[in-house]
Amino acid sequence: MTKVITDVICPFCGTLCDDVEVTVSDDGKKLLEVANACVIGTEKFLHSQSSDRVTKPRLRQEDGSWKDISYEEAADYTAKLLAKARKPLMYGWSSTNCEAQCVGNEIAEVAKACCDNTAAVCHGTTLIAVQDIGLPSCTLGEVKNRADRIIFWGCNPAHAHPRHMSRYSIFPRGFFTGKGQMSRKLVVVDPRCTDTAKMADVHLQIEQGRDYELLDAFRVALKGEWLPDVVAGIHAEKIREVADILKSGRFGIIFFGMGVTQSLSKNHNIDAAIALTKDLNEHTKYSIMPMRGHYNVTGSGEVFAWQFGFPYSVDLTRGFARYNPGDSSSIDLLLRGEIDAMFTIGSDPGAHFPISAVKQIAKVDSVCIDPHMTPTSGVSKLHVPVAFNGVETGGNCYRMDNVPIDCRKVVEPPEGMKTDLEFLTMVCDRLKKLKGVA
Amino acid sequence: MSEYIIKNGHVFDPVQGIKGDKKDICIKDGKIVDKVGSSAKVIDAKDKTVMAGAVEIHAHVAGPKVNLGRIYRPEDKLFSCTPTKGKERMGGGASIPTTFKTGYEYAKMGFAVAMEAAMPPLFSRHVHEEIRDTPIIDEGAFPVFGNNWFVLEYLKNHEIENTAAYCAWLLNVTKGYALKVVNPGGTEAWGWGLNCLTVNDPVPYFDITPAEIVKGLIEANEYLGLPHSMHIHPNNLGNPGCYETTLDTMKLAEGIKAKNKFGREQVLHLTHTQFHSYGGTNWGDFESKAKEVTDYVNKNKNITIDTGNVTLDETTTMTADGPFEHHLTGLNHLKWANVDVELETAAGVVPYIYSPSISVCAIQWAIGLEIALMMKDPMRCYITTDHPNAGPFTRYPRVYKWLMSEKARKQQIESFKHKDKVLSQTAIGTLDREISLYELAQMTRAGPAKSLGLAAMCGGLKPGMDADVAIYNINPDKPVANPDDIEKAFSRCAAFFKSGVQVVNNGEIVSNGNKRTLWVNVKAKENPQVARDINEKFVKYYSITQANYEALGHHFVPNPYAIEVDATQV
Q: Given a cut of 90, is residue B553 above it in pLDDT?
């Protein structure tokens, strides 16, 4: 006999779908089938069952080989590494739960570390823009129930957030949007003809890197002022036509992604996008929302903020929290060679940081806490595999609209495996002893 | 647990009617007791003032909009960071301190309880995570109901029983404390960029008026017999002439009597009254209507209020009154954040600078003080700053100074750029009342505790109550030489005991105490219709499933203190 567990939360992307159904074996040890999740989410659940999974911490030997060690030894190693370091970097946090993040912050405080999450290479620029100009936003249910104008700008949910469109933004029939897709106009701004763009009522195939100009042009068009014939590759008439579409909605939302946050102009693009949203609120109701990537990157920002006051790139080395992206952000710290120990959890900088920064990681003492074998675990001295959060252990996570959802445990982890929270607690206790903190 | 005896202090306790007499206070097992053994630790409070732990009835200290404020205001941390120190975790932030700093600052001023004033139900887990990380003080959170679709639909047909059943369910699943109402109907209208500015403006689509929502929720609250009353931030906040809406709102409570077993007497708590007591037609002829509002409250015993004192600081405004924050950003052009929450509510955040050089801000300052000074019964008027809206809670000692010293008020008025306008538009210059220490204990301890239905537990020093005891460096036998001494004394306790544990000594944190989350566990009659409606709304309109809605588990509420309400026999 098998059991079906319903209302399971998918620990993959910021959409944080919570209607997944998972079939497990009677003894709760094997995960057999996944229903309702997208193909990426399904793969994440099933990957926990793979036979080649690392189940014991591994320490790199001088000859480059790995030696299996116990969790106790791994925790000792990690605590000593953090105790000894003058400026450790504790990076990641986006694929683990908030409870683990809280313990991680306690460790960081004792170790006087630099703390950062994956916003550093993702929506950190968004956060800077929000600090400049604010953020009129809403929850995804508001979009489902009210929105009749949807703009995807520099993002491709068809591939990156596969169920976003069916759950929240385009297809669902909500309270005031009973006709579903028929009651919505979809505008996609993307230099590529993506699968999302193919579904759009209007696809503005913008010149690459010209987002700021086009956003500003919309603001001009809303005010009915003069526009040049072509802006960012789009004709003025088209811009005015789309501005009228935006203005004529009852409730609209701009979703934006890495196409604007990490391309030319970075945070200034988002400044302009938020300013456009504010302007649209003079005509009707508008919101704007970043398409956050990792399933709990938002949560990491929230925990950092309520404990330290800043959402990412926090530097605790002076004994109190400082925030200065560009100075206290991970890649910059690594490139300047200031980091003497690297602690990675719940993310993969080895795959996403510039190679020059990854080389710095390889140079220093390092630990990587991750259930998977990743490029980061490959360059780290110690790899601590842990239970899959959201599959083999529960814990709170925040969706891209900041809605907290408590993940569920659906199967037992392989015998003897620790969770992030358990391992971090071991490290925290040891570090406090080493540092003589009560 | 240790035993303590606090000797020789001047005790102010409205619960027992003690007005500064010297009396020993004994603590054992976390409670106040009649006597303790000879091994009890003696605390000498000679020439000092002893009061119960203070009770905060309305502050925004935990949850999504507070954290949004932290995230989007790095500037608030400039010059306000505190390093790790002994038992203290590091902290930061002036108007929106981090959770650790929030707990420590409250404790250092002698606060034992604080209520988070607006919890969006969908975000209850977030609120509880922050409450968990706020050390020492007991906290509860008020879920917001005034724009909730269930409530709007039930009350359109005046279905009190269904509304009550829904409220009971929501309090249970969100681990909430009381029924909060913010801009009833107006915040739902804000879903379309609209607002309700009077109690008779119909809510778009739902076709119900704010008056019907308010009256219905008062009735539902009394139907259930909850510890606290309906707690309201009325329509039309912050606009010249808004006092009329405030009076219209309060009139809705006329003739309704409190029904509960907690000793609460009011059926409506009007919060941050200062923001709702404005006359005039524009910012030029802006004036105080504190007298009209307090006259009404003085006459009607079934209402309690808190002040919402402006402290003349740079701060961060945040409220579930979404349309108001949009209006405010139009006034001051500072950065605007907004979050609309599906089926339930909305919130906005805008920084604000209450400058003493701006006449409107100075008049707001005066109105807040007028309200406290014009209220005849201190047991029905509580001091708040609507933290952080009118000013950060860390400024309470300064507000106490202004209330307790006419000299301090005069000094402040003298320093205003538009002094004459403040005096002509308000009555602050004519008020010579000075709040006594006993009255202060009523306004910050016994009063709010009674209003919250916690009178048996906190706000007093009667044997059997929780041993929350604050000792201040004030000698009531000596006249206050300098009003600033009042501020100084209330800023940092000489000692503070929370539930029998000494958490503050000489203004420093010595223990992280044993924090609790207060919530109200209502047992209500089974109501299949409401259960079906809840199920339907989750299937069709919420973006999460019903099974993933409840704030359940140790990591959200590790140390719960449930107040039981049995409404099955109603």
A: no
